[in-house]
Amino acid sequence: NNKRNIRNFSIIAHIDHGKSTLADRLIEKTGMLTSRQMHSQVLDNMDLERERGITIKLKAVRLIYKAKDGEEYILNLIDTPGHVDFTYEVSRSLAACEGAILIVDATQGIEAQTLANVYLALDQDLEILPVINKIDLPSARPEEVKAEVEDIIGIDCEEAPLISAKDGTNIESVLEEIVSKVPAPQMDVDAPLKALIFDSIYDTYKGVICYIRVFEGTIKPGMEIKLMATGKTFEVVEVGVITGKHVVLDKLEAGDVGFLTASIKNVKEATVGDTITEKSNPTKEALPGYKEVIPMVYSGIYPAEGEDFNSVREALEKLQVNDAALIFEPETSVALGFGFRCGFLGLLHMEIIQERLDREFNLNIITTAPSVIYKVMKNNGEMLEIQNPSNLPPQTEIDYMEEPIVKASIMTPTDYVGTIMELCQNKRGSFINMEYLEETRVILHYELPLNEVIYDFFDALKSKTRGYASFDYELKGYVRSDLVKLDLLINAESVDAFSLIVHRDKAYERGKSITQKLVDVIPRHQFAVPIQAAVGSKIIARETIRALRKDVLAKCYGGDISRKRKLLEKQKEGKKKMRQIGSVEVPQEAFLTVLKYD
Ligand code: GTP
Q1: 134 in Cβ contact with 116 (< 8 Å)
Q2: 137 lines ligand 1 (CB under 6 A)
Q3: ipTM
Q4: Alpha-carbon separation of residue 293 from 285, 327, 455, 473 (angstroms)
Q5: pTM (2 decimals)?
Q6: Is the CB of 166 within 6 Å of ligand 1?
Q7: Cα 62 to ligand 1 centroid, rounded to whole Å
Q8: What does the pLDDT look like over 527-542, one tens digit per residue?
Protein backbone atom coordinates (compact mmCIF):
# COMPACT_ATOMS: atom_id res chain seq x y z
CA ASN A 1 0.00 0.00 0.00
CA ASN A 2 2.14 2.78 -1.34
CA LYS A 3 1.12 6.24 -0.15
CA ARG A 4 2.46 7.77 -3.31
CA ASN A 5 -0.39 6.07 -5.06
CA ILE A 6 -3.14 8.02 -3.33
CA ARG A 7 -4.98 10.78 -5.14
CA ASN A 8 -7.51 12.94 -3.32
CA PHE A 9 -9.79 14.95 -5.56
CA SER A 10 -13.18 16.61 -5.95
CA ILE A 11 -15.32 17.45 -8.92
CA ILE A 12 -16.37 21.07 -9.25
CA ALA A 13 -18.93 22.42 -11.67
CA HIS A 14 -21.82 24.70 -12.25
CA ILE A 15 -25.14 23.08 -11.43
CA ASP A 16 -26.27 20.57 -14.07
CA HIS A 17 -22.97 20.44 -15.90
CA GLY A 18 -22.70 16.75 -15.05
CA LYS A 19 -20.88 16.38 -11.76
CA SER A 20 -22.95 13.52 -10.39
CA THR A 21 -23.07 11.75 -13.73
CA LEU A 22 -19.30 11.84 -14.03
CA ALA A 23 -18.93 10.64 -10.44
CA ASP A 24 -21.19 7.70 -11.33
CA ARG A 25 -19.05 6.86 -14.33
CA LEU A 26 -15.78 7.04 -12.42
CA ILE A 27 -17.16 4.72 -9.81
CA GLU A 28 -18.51 2.35 -12.42
CA LYS A 29 -15.31 2.38 -14.42
CA THR A 30 -13.27 1.42 -11.39
CA GLY A 31 -15.62 -1.47 -10.82
CA MET A 32 -17.00 -0.47 -7.45
CA LEU A 33 -20.69 -0.91 -7.99
CA THR A 34 -23.14 -0.67 -10.81
CA SER A 35 -24.40 2.82 -11.28
CA ARG A 36 -27.86 1.90 -10.06
CA GLN A 37 -26.53 0.48 -6.82
CA MET A 38 -24.24 3.43 -6.61
CA HIS A 39 -27.08 5.82 -6.92
CA SER A 40 -29.00 4.29 -4.11
CA GLN A 41 -25.99 3.78 -1.92
CA VAL A 42 -23.12 6.11 -2.38
CA LEU A 43 -23.38 9.71 -3.46
CA ASP A 44 -26.59 11.63 -3.25
CA ASN A 45 -28.28 9.20 -0.95
CA MET A 46 -31.08 11.36 0.20
CA ASP A 47 -34.23 11.07 -1.90
CA LEU A 48 -34.66 14.74 -1.83
CA GLU A 49 -31.26 15.37 -3.32
CA ARG A 50 -32.00 13.11 -6.19
CA GLU A 51 -35.39 14.54 -6.91
CA ARG A 52 -34.17 18.08 -6.88
CA GLY A 53 -31.12 17.07 -8.84
CA ILE A 54 -28.78 18.72 -6.44
CA THR A 55 -26.19 17.46 -4.07
CA ILE A 56 -26.72 18.69 -0.55
CA LYS A 57 -24.38 16.64 1.58
CA LEU A 58 -20.92 15.70 0.55
CA LYS A 59 -19.39 12.29 1.06
CA ALA A 60 -16.25 10.50 0.05
CA VAL A 61 -15.75 7.34 -1.97
CA ARG A 62 -12.59 5.29 -2.33
CA LEU A 63 -11.95 3.96 -5.84
CA ILE A 64 -9.22 1.55 -6.86
CA TYR A 65 -7.84 2.19 -10.33
CA LYS A 66 -5.24 0.23 -12.23
CA ALA A 67 -3.57 2.89 -14.36
CA LYS A 68 -1.84 2.54 -17.71
CA ASP A 69 1.52 2.71 -15.93
CA GLY A 70 0.65 -0.68 -14.45
CA GLU A 71 0.29 0.60 -10.89
CA GLU A 72 -2.72 0.49 -8.71
CA TYR A 73 -4.00 3.79 -7.33
CA ILE A 74 -6.37 4.70 -4.54
CA LEU A 75 -8.55 7.54 -5.76
CA ASN A 76 -10.54 9.28 -3.06
CA LEU A 77 -13.42 11.13 -4.66
CA ILE A 78 -14.82 13.77 -2.35
CA ASP A 79 -18.25 14.97 -3.33
CA THR A 80 -19.12 18.65 -3.00
CA PRO A 81 -22.55 20.25 -2.71
CA GLY A 82 -23.55 22.30 -5.70
CA HIS A 83 -25.25 25.37 -4.33
CA VAL A 84 -24.21 28.78 -3.13
CA ASP A 85 -25.89 28.18 0.25
CA PHE A 86 -23.26 25.54 0.98
CA THR A 87 -20.12 27.37 -0.08
CA TYR A 88 -18.40 26.77 3.22
CA GLU A 89 -18.90 23.03 2.96
CA VAL A 90 -17.55 23.11 -0.56
CA SER A 91 -14.48 24.99 0.59
CA ARG A 92 -13.84 22.43 3.37
CA SER A 93 -14.15 19.46 1.08
CA LEU A 94 -11.77 21.10 -1.35
CA ALA A 95 -9.39 21.65 1.55
CA ALA A 96 -9.32 17.86 1.92
CA CYS A 97 -8.00 17.41 -1.64
CA GLU A 98 -4.90 18.00 -3.71
CA GLY A 99 -6.77 18.33 -6.99
CA ALA A 100 -10.12 19.11 -8.56
CA ILE A 101 -11.73 18.11 -11.80
CA LEU A 102 -13.37 21.15 -13.30
CA ILE A 103 -16.23 19.91 -15.40
CA VAL A 104 -17.68 22.31 -17.95
CA ASP A 105 -20.72 21.66 -20.12
CA ALA A 106 -19.68 21.85 -23.79
CA THR A 107 -23.01 23.41 -24.70
CA GLN A 108 -23.04 26.04 -21.95
CA GLY A 109 -19.48 27.05 -21.28
CA ILE A 110 -18.42 28.71 -18.06
CA GLU A 111 -21.19 29.79 -15.69
CA ALA A 112 -21.23 31.81 -12.48
CA GLN A 113 -20.73 28.86 -10.17
CA THR A 114 -18.00 27.43 -12.39
CA LEU A 115 -15.99 30.52 -11.60
CA ALA A 116 -17.01 30.68 -7.95
CA ASN A 117 -15.90 27.07 -7.49
CA VAL A 118 -12.66 27.62 -9.38
CA TYR A 119 -11.83 30.47 -7.02
CA LEU A 120 -12.49 28.22 -4.05
CA ALA A 121 -10.21 25.56 -5.53
CA LEU A 122 -7.48 28.11 -6.24
CA ASP A 123 -7.74 29.32 -2.63
CA GLN A 124 -6.78 25.81 -1.59
CA ASP A 125 -3.92 25.67 -4.13
CA LEU A 126 -5.48 22.71 -5.88
CA GLU A 127 -4.35 21.32 -9.19
CA ILE A 128 -7.30 22.00 -11.48
CA LEU A 129 -8.00 19.56 -14.31
CA PRO A 130 -10.47 20.86 -16.88
CA VAL A 131 -12.83 18.32 -18.45
CA ILE A 132 -15.31 19.20 -21.17
CA ASN A 133 -18.57 17.26 -20.83
CA LYS A 134 -21.67 16.52 -22.94
CA ILE A 135 -19.81 16.25 -26.23
CA ASP A 136 -22.54 13.85 -27.37
CA LEU A 137 -24.97 16.73 -27.74
CA PRO A 138 -25.35 18.23 -31.22
CA SER A 139 -25.05 21.72 -29.79
CA ALA A 140 -21.72 20.93 -28.11
CA ARG A 141 -18.90 23.32 -29.02
CA PRO A 142 -15.96 21.77 -27.17
CA GLU A 143 -13.23 23.73 -28.91
CA GLU A 144 -14.87 27.07 -28.16
CA VAL A 145 -15.51 26.09 -24.57
CA LYS A 146 -11.89 25.02 -24.17
CA ALA A 147 -10.77 28.38 -25.47
CA GLU A 148 -13.15 30.06 -23.07
CA VAL A 149 -11.74 28.15 -20.10
CA GLU A 150 -8.21 29.12 -21.14
CA ASP A 151 -9.15 32.77 -21.60
CA ILE A 152 -11.30 33.30 -18.58
CA ILE A 153 -9.75 31.02 -16.01
CA GLY A 154 -6.29 30.93 -17.44
CA ILE A 155 -5.70 27.20 -17.20
CA ASP A 156 -4.25 25.15 -19.98
CA CYS A 157 -6.87 23.05 -21.75
CA GLU A 158 -4.67 21.40 -24.32
CA GLU A 159 -5.01 18.04 -22.64
CA ALA A 160 -8.52 18.51 -21.28
CA PRO A 161 -10.47 15.31 -21.91
CA LEU A 162 -13.56 15.74 -24.06
CA ILE A 163 -16.12 13.42 -22.57
CA SER A 164 -19.71 12.37 -22.44
CA ALA A 165 -20.43 11.40 -18.87
CA LYS A 166 -23.83 10.23 -19.99
CA ASP A 167 -22.59 7.82 -22.65
CA GLY A 168 -19.40 6.94 -20.78
CA THR A 169 -17.15 8.31 -23.54
CA ASN A 170 -13.51 8.96 -22.62
CA ILE A 171 -13.92 8.37 -18.90
CA GLU A 172 -10.59 6.59 -18.73
CA SER A 173 -8.74 9.69 -19.85
CA VAL A 174 -10.21 11.49 -16.82
CA LEU A 175 -8.86 8.78 -14.53
CA GLU A 176 -5.44 8.98 -16.20
CA GLU A 177 -5.39 12.75 -15.78
CA ILE A 178 -6.10 12.35 -12.08
CA VAL A 179 -3.30 9.84 -11.65
CA SER A 180 -0.74 11.82 -13.61
CA LYS A 181 -1.60 15.38 -12.54
CA VAL A 182 -3.05 15.43 -9.05
CA PRO A 183 -0.13 15.52 -6.57
CA ALA A 184 0.24 12.64 -4.11
CA PRO A 185 -0.51 13.68 -0.52
CA GLN A 186 2.14 14.42 2.11
CA MET A 187 2.52 11.51 4.43
CA ASP A 188 4.14 12.15 7.76
CA VAL A 189 2.49 9.26 9.61
CA ASP A 190 4.52 9.71 12.80
CA ALA A 191 3.68 13.35 13.44
CA PRO A 192 0.97 14.26 15.97
CA LEU A 193 -2.48 13.66 14.53
CA LYS A 194 -3.98 16.40 12.39
CA ALA A 195 -7.17 15.62 10.50
CA LEU A 196 -9.89 17.74 8.91
CA ILE A 197 -13.60 17.07 9.26
CA PHE A 198 -15.10 17.92 5.88
CA ASP A 199 -18.51 16.46 6.55
CA SER A 200 -20.41 14.92 9.39
CA ILE A 201 -23.71 13.10 9.34
CA TYR A 202 -25.81 11.49 12.01
CA ASP A 203 -26.46 7.77 11.95
CA THR A 204 -29.06 6.23 14.24
CA TYR A 205 -26.84 3.30 15.16
CA LYS A 206 -23.36 4.76 15.23
CA GLY A 207 -23.99 8.33 16.22
CA VAL A 208 -22.19 10.99 14.23
CA ILE A 209 -20.03 9.74 11.37
CA CYS A 210 -17.27 12.20 10.56
CA TYR A 211 -15.77 12.21 7.11
CA ILE A 212 -12.16 13.14 7.51
CA ARG A 213 -8.94 13.80 5.70
CA VAL A 214 -5.84 12.91 7.68
CA PHE A 215 -3.02 15.38 7.01
CA GLU A 216 -0.47 14.25 9.59
CA GLY A 217 -0.13 11.31 11.91
CA THR A 218 -2.32 8.26 12.37
CA ILE A 219 -5.76 7.71 13.84
CA LYS A 220 -6.91 4.42 15.34
CA PRO A 221 -9.81 2.99 17.31
CA GLY A 222 -9.35 3.50 21.04
CA MET A 223 -7.47 6.76 20.61
CA GLU A 224 -8.58 9.76 22.71
CA ILE A 225 -9.16 12.56 20.26
CA LYS A 226 -9.76 16.23 20.74
CA LEU A 227 -11.71 18.51 18.43
CA MET A 228 -9.76 21.72 18.41
CA ALA A 229 -12.57 24.23 17.75
CA THR A 230 -15.05 22.88 20.26
CA GLY A 231 -12.48 21.49 22.69
CA LYS A 232 -14.54 18.30 23.07
CA THR A 233 -12.86 14.95 23.53
CA PHE A 234 -14.01 11.53 22.39
CA GLU A 235 -12.72 7.99 22.13
CA VAL A 236 -12.51 6.71 18.57
CA VAL A 237 -14.76 3.68 18.03
CA GLU A 238 -14.19 2.92 14.36
CA VAL A 239 -12.23 4.24 11.42
CA GLY A 240 -12.57 3.17 7.82
CA VAL A 241 -13.23 4.02 4.21
CA ILE A 242 -16.25 4.03 1.96
CA THR A 243 -16.21 1.79 -1.06
CA GLY A 244 -19.91 1.73 -1.68
CA LYS A 245 -20.34 0.66 1.91
CA HIS A 246 -18.43 1.61 5.02
CA VAL A 247 -15.43 -0.67 5.43
CA VAL A 248 -13.82 -0.69 8.86
CA LEU A 249 -10.00 -0.55 8.96
CA ASP A 250 -7.49 -0.69 11.81
CA LYS A 251 -6.20 2.83 11.15
CA LEU A 252 -6.17 5.84 8.85
CA GLU A 253 -2.89 7.60 8.13
CA ALA A 254 -1.61 10.88 6.74
CA GLY A 255 -2.88 11.20 3.17
CA ASP A 256 -5.97 9.06 3.75
CA VAL A 257 -9.58 10.04 3.39
CA GLY A 258 -12.17 8.09 5.32
CA PHE A 259 -14.60 8.14 8.20
CA LEU A 260 -14.56 7.87 11.95
CA THR A 261 -17.13 7.24 14.65
CA ALA A 262 -16.64 8.09 18.31
CA SER A 263 -20.05 7.95 20.00
CA ILE A 264 -20.66 11.57 19.13
CA LYS A 265 -24.30 12.44 19.74
CA ASN A 266 -24.82 15.53 17.64
CA VAL A 267 -23.22 16.99 14.52
CA LYS A 268 -22.81 20.28 16.37
CA GLU A 269 -20.09 18.61 18.45
CA ALA A 270 -18.09 17.66 15.37
CA THR A 271 -18.71 20.36 12.84
CA VAL A 272 -17.39 20.72 9.35
CA GLY A 273 -14.04 22.48 9.28
CA ASP A 274 -12.89 21.41 12.73
CA THR A 275 -9.46 19.85 13.27
CA ILE A 276 -9.07 16.51 15.05
CA THR A 277 -5.94 15.81 17.04
CA GLU A 278 -4.79 13.34 19.68
CA LYS A 279 -5.61 14.48 23.20
CA SER A 280 -2.36 13.29 24.75
CA ASN A 281 -0.14 14.32 21.86
CA PRO A 282 -1.78 17.33 20.21
CA THR A 283 -0.63 19.01 17.05
CA LYS A 284 0.53 22.58 17.55
CA GLU A 285 -1.83 24.38 15.26
CA ALA A 286 -5.27 23.62 13.95
CA LEU A 287 -5.82 23.53 10.20
CA PRO A 288 -6.69 26.96 8.82
CA GLY A 289 -10.12 28.02 7.69
CA TYR A 290 -12.42 26.91 10.48
CA LYS A 291 -15.61 28.91 10.47
CA GLU A 292 -18.76 28.65 12.45
CA VAL A 293 -21.60 28.67 9.95
CA ILE A 294 -23.98 31.52 10.54
CA PRO A 295 -27.55 31.37 9.31
CA MET A 296 -28.38 34.20 6.95
CA VAL A 297 -32.08 33.65 6.49
CA TYR A 298 -34.74 33.25 9.18
CA SER A 299 -38.35 32.29 9.10
CA GLY A 300 -41.07 31.12 11.44
CA ILE A 301 -42.20 27.51 11.22
CA TYR A 302 -45.59 26.79 12.76
CA PRO A 303 -47.66 23.66 13.02
CA ALA A 304 -50.56 23.86 10.62
CA GLU A 305 -54.10 23.48 11.91
CA GLY A 306 -54.49 20.14 13.66
CA GLU A 307 -50.75 19.54 13.83
CA ASP A 308 -49.00 19.11 17.14
CA PHE A 309 -46.40 21.61 18.35
CA ASN A 310 -44.37 18.87 20.02
CA SER A 311 -44.15 16.79 16.86
CA VAL A 312 -42.73 19.79 15.06
CA ARG A 313 -40.19 20.30 17.82
CA GLU A 314 -39.16 16.67 17.78
CA ALA A 315 -38.77 16.73 14.01
CA LEU A 316 -36.65 19.88 14.12
CA GLU A 317 -34.51 18.34 16.84
CA LYS A 318 -33.96 15.26 14.71
CA LEU A 319 -33.05 17.33 11.68
CA GLN A 320 -30.69 19.42 13.74
CA VAL A 321 -28.76 16.40 14.91
CA ASN A 322 -27.79 15.98 11.27
CA ASP A 323 -27.52 19.58 10.23
CA ALA A 324 -25.20 21.85 12.17
CA ALA A 325 -26.37 24.86 10.17
CA LEU A 326 -30.00 24.61 11.23
CA ILE A 327 -30.93 26.56 14.32
CA PHE A 328 -34.30 27.11 15.95
CA GLU A 329 -35.95 28.45 19.08
CA PRO A 330 -39.56 28.60 20.20
CA GLU A 331 -41.52 31.72 19.40
CA THR A 332 -45.16 32.67 19.48
CA SER A 333 -47.24 34.45 16.97
CA VAL A 334 -50.57 36.06 17.72
CA ALA A 335 -51.91 34.71 14.46
CA LEU A 336 -50.29 31.31 14.40
CA GLY A 337 -49.83 30.39 18.03
CA PHE A 338 -46.80 28.42 19.19
CA GLY A 339 -44.05 27.76 16.70
CA PHE A 340 -40.34 28.17 16.05
CA ARG A 341 -38.01 30.77 14.68
CA CYS A 342 -35.55 28.93 12.44
CA GLY A 343 -32.27 30.05 10.93
CA PHE A 344 -30.99 28.75 7.59
CA LEU A 345 -27.92 29.21 5.43
CA GLY A 346 -30.04 30.46 2.56
CA LEU A 347 -33.33 30.04 0.80
CA LEU A 348 -32.53 26.65 -0.65
CA HIS A 349 -31.53 25.34 2.74
CA MET A 350 -34.84 26.66 4.06
CA GLU A 351 -36.81 24.92 1.34
CA ILE A 352 -34.97 21.68 1.96
CA ILE A 353 -35.82 21.75 5.66
CA GLN A 354 -39.46 22.53 4.92
CA GLU A 355 -39.66 19.69 2.48
CA ARG A 356 -38.02 17.26 4.85
CA LEU A 357 -40.52 18.16 7.57
CA ASP A 358 -43.24 17.39 5.11
CA ARG A 359 -41.84 14.22 3.60
CA GLU A 360 -39.80 12.54 6.28
CA PHE A 361 -41.96 13.55 9.20
CA ASN A 362 -45.26 13.93 7.45
CA LEU A 363 -45.84 17.27 9.11
CA ASN A 364 -48.06 20.00 7.89
CA ILE A 365 -46.40 23.32 8.58
CA ILE A 366 -46.85 26.98 7.89
CA THR A 367 -43.83 29.08 7.11
CA THR A 368 -43.72 32.82 7.52
CA ALA A 369 -41.93 35.15 5.14
CA PRO A 370 -38.15 34.72 5.24
CA SER A 371 -36.17 37.54 6.78
CA VAL A 372 -32.52 38.48 6.99
CA ILE A 373 -30.82 39.85 10.11
CA TYR A 374 -31.22 43.61 10.44
CA LYS A 375 -29.16 45.75 12.74
CA VAL A 376 -31.19 48.29 14.60
CA MET A 377 -29.59 51.23 16.42
CA LYS A 378 -31.92 52.55 19.06
CA ASN A 379 -32.03 56.15 20.21
CA ASN A 380 -30.58 55.05 23.53
CA GLY A 381 -27.45 53.75 21.81
CA GLU A 382 -28.37 50.08 22.05
CA MET A 383 -27.74 47.98 18.92
CA LEU A 384 -30.20 45.14 18.29
CA GLU A 385 -30.09 42.32 15.80
CA ILE A 386 -33.55 41.60 14.52
CA GLN A 387 -34.53 38.61 12.43
CA ASN A 388 -38.23 38.62 13.18
CA PRO A 389 -40.13 41.69 11.96
CA SER A 390 -42.47 41.38 14.96
CA ASN A 391 -39.59 42.17 17.30
CA LEU A 392 -38.80 45.49 15.71
CA PRO A 393 -39.04 48.29 18.29
CA PRO A 394 -41.47 51.14 17.54
CA GLN A 395 -40.21 53.50 14.86
CA THR A 396 -39.95 56.32 17.42
CA GLU A 397 -37.29 54.41 19.36
CA ILE A 398 -35.15 53.72 16.30
CA ASP A 399 -32.25 55.94 15.36
CA TYR A 400 -31.30 54.04 12.20
CA MET A 401 -31.25 50.55 10.69
CA GLU A 402 -28.74 48.57 8.68
CA GLU A 403 -29.28 45.71 6.27
CA PRO A 404 -26.93 43.07 4.82
CA ILE A 405 -25.57 43.62 1.32
CA VAL A 406 -24.13 40.95 -0.98
CA LYS A 407 -21.64 41.11 -3.80
CA ALA A 408 -23.30 39.43 -6.73
CA SER A 409 -21.86 38.19 -10.01
CA ILE A 410 -24.26 37.50 -12.81
CA MET A 411 -23.06 35.83 -15.95
CA THR A 412 -25.18 36.26 -19.02
CA PRO A 413 -25.33 36.40 -22.78
CA THR A 414 -25.12 40.06 -23.83
CA ASP A 415 -28.73 39.93 -25.09
CA TYR A 416 -30.02 40.01 -21.53
CA VAL A 417 -27.81 42.74 -20.10
CA GLY A 418 -30.56 45.35 -20.34
CA THR A 419 -33.15 43.12 -18.72
CA ILE A 420 -30.82 42.16 -15.89
CA MET A 421 -29.79 45.72 -15.22
CA GLU A 422 -33.42 46.65 -14.98
CA LEU A 423 -34.05 43.80 -12.59
CA CYS A 424 -31.09 44.72 -10.39
CA GLN A 425 -32.14 48.33 -10.41
CA ASN A 426 -35.56 47.25 -9.33
CA LYS A 427 -34.00 45.25 -6.52
CA ARG A 428 -32.15 48.31 -5.26
CA GLY A 429 -28.86 47.07 -6.64
CA SER A 430 -25.83 49.25 -7.24
CA PHE A 431 -23.95 48.54 -10.41
CA ILE A 432 -20.23 47.95 -9.90
CA ASN A 433 -18.97 47.00 -13.33
CA MET A 434 -19.33 44.77 -16.35
CA GLU A 435 -16.63 42.52 -17.79
CA TYR A 436 -16.68 40.95 -21.21
CA LEU A 437 -15.90 37.25 -21.13
CA GLU A 438 -16.23 36.88 -24.85
CA GLU A 439 -17.97 38.88 -27.51
CA THR A 440 -21.41 37.60 -26.59
CA ARG A 441 -21.07 37.00 -22.87
CA VAL A 442 -20.50 39.24 -19.93
CA ILE A 443 -20.27 39.14 -16.19
CA LEU A 444 -22.12 41.85 -14.31
CA HIS A 445 -21.04 42.83 -10.81
CA TYR A 446 -23.65 44.30 -8.53
CA GLU A 447 -24.15 44.98 -4.89
CA LEU A 448 -27.61 43.91 -3.82
CA PRO A 449 -29.48 43.94 -0.52
CA LEU A 450 -29.76 40.35 0.69
CA ASN A 451 -33.38 41.00 1.57
CA GLU A 452 -34.19 41.46 -2.11
CA VAL A 453 -32.14 38.44 -3.10
CA ILE A 454 -33.96 36.10 -0.77
CA TYR A 455 -37.30 37.42 -1.85
CA ASP A 456 -37.39 36.22 -5.42
CA PHE A 457 -34.23 37.24 -7.19
CA PHE A 458 -33.35 33.74 -8.41
CA ASP A 459 -36.78 33.13 -9.88
CA ALA A 460 -37.01 36.52 -11.51
CA LEU A 461 -33.54 36.19 -13.01
CA LYS A 462 -34.27 32.75 -14.34
CA SER A 463 -37.58 33.67 -15.92
CA LYS A 464 -36.37 36.95 -17.38
CA THR A 465 -33.37 35.36 -19.04
CA ARG A 466 -35.01 32.06 -19.90
CA GLY A 467 -32.46 30.32 -17.71
CA TYR A 468 -29.46 31.70 -19.60
CA ALA A 469 -28.06 33.80 -16.79
CA SER A 470 -26.31 32.33 -13.79
CA PHE A 471 -25.80 33.91 -10.44
CA ASP A 472 -23.52 33.74 -7.45
CA TYR A 473 -23.13 35.91 -4.38
CA GLU A 474 -21.26 36.42 -1.14
CA LEU A 475 -22.01 38.54 1.88
CA LYS A 476 -20.27 41.89 1.82
CA GLY A 477 -21.42 43.61 4.98
CA TYR A 478 -24.03 45.93 6.44
CA VAL A 479 -25.13 49.34 5.23
CA ARG A 480 -27.58 51.87 6.56
CA SER A 481 -30.91 51.74 4.89
CA ASP A 482 -34.31 53.39 5.14
CA LEU A 483 -36.28 50.37 6.26
CA VAL A 484 -39.81 50.15 7.57
CA LYS A 485 -42.08 47.46 8.93
CA LEU A 486 -44.93 46.58 6.63
CA ASP A 487 -47.96 45.22 8.48
CA LEU A 488 -50.90 43.37 7.02
CA LEU A 489 -54.33 43.78 8.54
CA ILE A 490 -57.11 41.34 7.94
CA ASN A 491 -60.50 42.62 9.01
CA ALA A 492 -58.70 45.44 10.83
CA GLU A 493 -56.57 43.04 12.82
CA SER A 494 -52.82 43.09 12.32
CA VAL A 495 -51.51 39.62 11.46
CA ASP A 496 -47.98 39.32 12.76
CA ALA A 497 -47.13 36.31 10.61
CA PHE A 498 -47.47 38.49 7.52
CA SER A 499 -45.28 41.34 8.73
CA LEU A 500 -42.22 42.19 6.68
CA ILE A 501 -39.32 44.58 6.90
CA VAL A 502 -38.95 46.36 3.59
CA HIS A 503 -37.28 49.40 2.13
CA ARG A 504 -39.51 52.45 2.40
CA ASP A 505 -39.55 52.88 -1.37
CA LYS A 506 -40.82 49.32 -1.78
CA ALA A 507 -43.48 49.42 0.89
CA TYR A 508 -46.32 50.59 -1.31
CA GLU A 509 -45.58 48.17 -4.14
CA ARG A 510 -45.20 45.19 -1.81
CA GLY A 511 -48.22 46.15 0.24
CA LYS A 512 -50.34 46.44 -2.86
CA SER A 513 -49.18 43.20 -4.37
CA ILE A 514 -49.75 41.26 -1.14
CA THR A 515 -53.22 42.66 -0.51
CA GLN A 516 -54.18 41.82 -4.07
CA LYS A 517 -52.95 38.29 -3.70
CA LEU A 518 -54.68 37.76 -0.40
CA VAL A 519 -57.98 38.84 -1.90
CA ASP A 520 -57.65 35.96 -4.31
CA VAL A 521 -56.77 33.27 -1.81
CA ILE A 522 -58.96 34.13 1.18
CA PRO A 523 -62.47 32.81 0.60
CA ARG A 524 -65.51 35.04 0.89
CA HIS A 525 -67.23 35.21 4.25
CA GLN A 526 -70.74 36.20 5.32
CA PHE A 527 -69.38 39.70 5.79
CA ALA A 528 -67.02 41.93 3.85
CA VAL A 529 -63.37 41.52 4.83
CA PRO A 530 -60.98 44.42 4.36
CA ILE A 531 -57.35 43.55 3.67
CA GLN A 532 -54.98 46.39 4.38
CA ALA A 533 -51.27 47.06 4.30
CA ALA A 534 -49.87 49.59 6.71
CA VAL A 535 -46.63 51.28 7.63
CA GLY A 536 -46.94 52.41 11.21
CA SER A 537 -50.46 53.74 11.55
CA LYS A 538 -50.69 54.71 7.92
CA ILE A 539 -52.70 52.49 5.58
CA ILE A 540 -50.93 52.34 2.25
CA ALA A 541 -52.99 49.76 0.37
CA ARG A 542 -56.45 48.29 0.72
CA GLU A 543 -58.56 45.62 -0.91
CA THR A 544 -61.89 44.18 0.12
CA ILE A 545 -63.18 40.66 -0.06
CA ARG A 546 -66.85 41.07 -0.79
CA ALA A 547 -69.42 39.37 1.40
CA LEU A 548 -70.82 36.06 0.35
CA ARG A 549 -74.37 36.38 -0.93
CA LYS A 550 -75.72 32.90 -1.30
CA ASP A 551 -74.93 29.46 -0.12
CA VAL A 552 -72.38 27.93 -2.45
CA LEU A 553 -74.57 24.87 -2.83
CA ALA A 554 -77.24 27.00 -4.41
CA LYS A 555 -75.05 27.01 -7.45
CA CYS A 556 -75.61 23.31 -7.90
CA TYR A 557 -79.11 23.62 -9.09
CA GLY A 558 -81.29 20.59 -8.88
CA GLY A 559 -80.31 17.16 -7.92
CA ASP A 560 -76.77 16.62 -9.05
CA ILE A 561 -75.89 14.81 -5.87
CA SER A 562 -72.39 13.78 -6.79
CA ARG A 563 -71.44 17.29 -7.68
CA LYS A 564 -72.92 18.54 -4.45
CA ARG A 565 -71.01 15.98 -2.47
CA LYS A 566 -67.80 16.86 -4.23
CA LEU A 567 -68.28 20.47 -3.38
CA LEU A 568 -68.92 19.68 0.26
CA GLU A 569 -65.87 17.49 0.41
CA LYS A 570 -63.80 20.15 -1.18
CA GLN A 571 -65.02 22.61 1.38
CA LYS A 572 -64.22 20.23 4.16
CA GLU A 573 -60.75 19.69 2.81
CA GLY A 574 -60.34 23.41 2.52
CA LYS A 575 -61.47 23.77 6.12
CA LYS A 576 -58.75 21.56 7.41
CA LYS A 577 -56.16 23.86 5.94
CA MET A 578 -57.60 27.06 7.34
CA ARG A 579 -56.31 29.25 10.11
CA GLN A 580 -58.75 31.26 12.07
CA ILE A 581 -57.62 34.86 12.36
CA GLY A 582 -60.17 36.81 14.38
CA SER A 583 -63.41 35.97 12.69
CA VAL A 584 -61.78 35.33 9.33
CA GLU A 585 -60.68 31.98 7.97
CA VAL A 586 -57.38 32.23 6.17
CA PRO A 587 -56.21 29.28 4.09
CA GLN A 588 -52.70 28.05 4.69
CA GLU A 589 -51.66 28.79 1.16
CA ALA A 590 -52.15 32.47 1.95
CA PHE A 591 -48.97 32.37 3.99
CA LEU A 592 -47.09 31.03 1.02
CA THR A 593 -48.65 33.52 -1.35
CA VAL A 594 -47.01 36.36 0.46
CA LEU A 595 -43.60 34.90 -0.22
CA LYS A 596 -44.07 34.38 -3.91
CA TYR A 597 -43.35 36.97 -6.52
CA ASP A 598 -45.90 37.67 -9.25
P1 GTP B 1 -25.86 19.09 -9.38
O2 GTP B 1 -25.82 17.81 -8.61
O3 GTP B 1 -27.18 19.75 -9.32
O4 GTP B 1 -24.72 19.99 -9.09
O5 GTP B 1 -25.77 18.74 -10.92
P6 GTP B 1 -24.63 17.92 -11.57
O7 GTP B 1 -23.57 18.85 -12.02
O8 GTP B 1 -24.26 16.79 -10.69
O9 GTP B 1 -25.32 17.40 -12.88
P10 GTP B 1 -25.84 15.92 -13.19
O11 GTP B 1 -24.75 14.94 -13.22
O12 GTP B 1 -27.00 15.66 -12.30
O13 GTP B 1 -26.31 16.16 -14.68
C14 GTP B 1 -27.25 17.14 -15.03
C15 GTP B 1 -28.01 16.71 -16.26
O16 GTP B 1 -27.14 16.61 -17.38
C17 GTP B 1 -28.63 15.32 -16.11
O18 GTP B 1 -29.89 15.34 -16.73
C19 GTP B 1 -27.67 14.41 -16.84
O20 GTP B 1 -28.30 13.27 -17.38
C21 GTP B 1 -27.18 15.32 -17.95
N22 GTP B 1 -25.84 14.95 -18.40
C23 GTP B 1 -24.74 14.74 -17.65
N24 GTP B 1 -23.69 14.41 -18.44
C25 GTP B 1 -24.14 14.41 -19.70
C26 GTP B 1 -23.53 14.14 -20.98
O27 GTP B 1 -22.37 13.82 -21.11
N28 GTP B 1 -24.34 14.26 -22.06
C29 GTP B 1 -25.65 14.60 -21.97
N30 GTP B 1 -26.35 14.67 -23.09
N31 GTP B 1 -26.24 14.86 -20.81
C32 GTP B 1 -25.51 14.76 -19.69
Answers
A1: no
A2: yes
A3: 0.97
A4: 21, 11, 22, 16
A5: 0.79
A6: yes
A7: 22
A8: 899 999 999 889 999 9
